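[agent] plan:
  1. take the single chain provided in the ticket
  2. run structure prediction with default settings
  3. attach structure tokens to the ticket
  4. add a short note for the reviewer (M.T.)
[agent] executing step 1
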Amino acid sequence: MSGRSTTEHPQDPSRAAVRAVRIGPRSVLALALVSAVGVAAFGWPLLASRGSGVNAHAQDAPWLFAGLLVLLVGVVTAALSESGLGPKAVAMLGVLAATGAALRPLGAGTAGLEPMFFLMVLSGRVLGPGFGFVLGSVTMFASALLTGGVGPWMPFQMLSMGWFTMGAGLLPGPARLRGRGELLLLAGYGGLAALAYGTIMNLSGWPFMDSLSSGIAFDPDLALHENLARFFAYCLATSLGWDLGRAALTVVLTFTLGGTVLRALRRATRRAAFEVPVVFEGAGREPRPDD
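[agent] step 2 finished; step 3 output follows
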């Protein structure tokens, strides 16, 4: 019996090229806005001049900058409302975010070993920077709910993880580089970005130490180079061990499991065929008597 006009035959996904999930101009604009505000939110202690009125609100800043969460939700909403993130992409977003949120607690409390980071790197690589930013922020939000880590630091974590995952999508050669060369690139990026994530997150908490009780705390009355020296000392004393553990695990997992995970992600992306239009068999012809 011949096929009817109601039968759908999408293009063979096994032959389709793996394409990053596109997001539209509204999402790009929202992402730029969030990133600009995020840079100010993280870097204000180093950007504000001595005697600036900004420093007078140092203890209020965690709550003031928690408003970033509203902008992050706006990015996600704008991205999901555009054609680049259709139902299939939203479903993949949910699966990857849930997986990442479940992976994060596995190493919690053990030298910063957080296996979710390598999954974020590989996902951003395959699915692109826009999808990567949304995935990173949603994953961190979900993991905060799962582990009870909700607080004024959560928007900073969401933004940092969004940047981390987006950066993987911006790495060169997504369509050509494969094999060991690609794993080397991703492992190098993942290790450096895991260290950078810890350093950036330190900026969100460092200014709120009592400067009278520690020689490594932020002091609004000191010059920039003096506060930078204090900040690096703060990182060495408080988080370097965790950051190195996170970076090392990300590198090891990328080399050992990266090839398998990349193939699985690319296979799922091809089968989902996010941007392949549906073709209806028999469209544009007159119905035959046996239809």
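[agent] step 4 note for reviewer: The chain has ten helices and no strands.
[agent] ticket updated
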